[in-house]
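Field reference: sequence -> structure
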Amino acid sequence: MTPHRTAHSRELRLTPNDLDFCYLPRVASSVSSYGCELVCTVDASRFFVSGGRHIVFAVDCEGGQGSYNPHCGPIFRYGKNLWATARGVIVFGDGVVMAEGWNGTAMPALATITNTSGAVFDPGQQPIFTLRIAAGYRRGALANRIGVEIRAGGSAEGALLFAGGIEGPEWGGDWKGGSRAAMGGIALGFVPPAATGCMEELLPRSAPHAVLVMSRFRFRMRLLDRIPLGP
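Structure field:
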């Protein structure tokens, strides 16, 4: 079993076509009742103010962009193609957090996650935060569920700013013995390969100076007993 993988930091820039992303190494487990957990500290101080639209955190990434999906061609960053299917959350500059289920079509599942923490999450005022996603699998106790916590600053023990979860068949995942996670950012000027002859044009668009610094990654599979995770 590979319980977790860590890395130091990655700087993502939206200079190429208003989109950047990176993968974390795949983690694996032989325990089908486990869920997956992604923890990451985000410095968005140069992202939303520079035109970034939302930040992406995805787990269970599978497949890639190509002939049989809406983009019709690959979207490469750091030598890796953008996933076709995954589930996770996206964070907007006004503090809205949504669940997204990428399904290889132009109509992914989207739903707003309610903040039950009692606090206010505002990335404009709190641009450095630590996010934790937990996702169950259909063989485990937390089947069809995704939970997210956001805490102030660079620690998973910081003040709780956001806590919430979502449940339903579209948010579940089949147990496959492992998972691959990714993080990224996008702005409104992104031009899909379908608009440029199925080959992405890596040109500066609306947010060439938008930057995300991702650090203190932890991605692992473990026993999850509740979603949202709470204080």
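Note: Confidence is low (pLDDT under 50) at residues 1-7.
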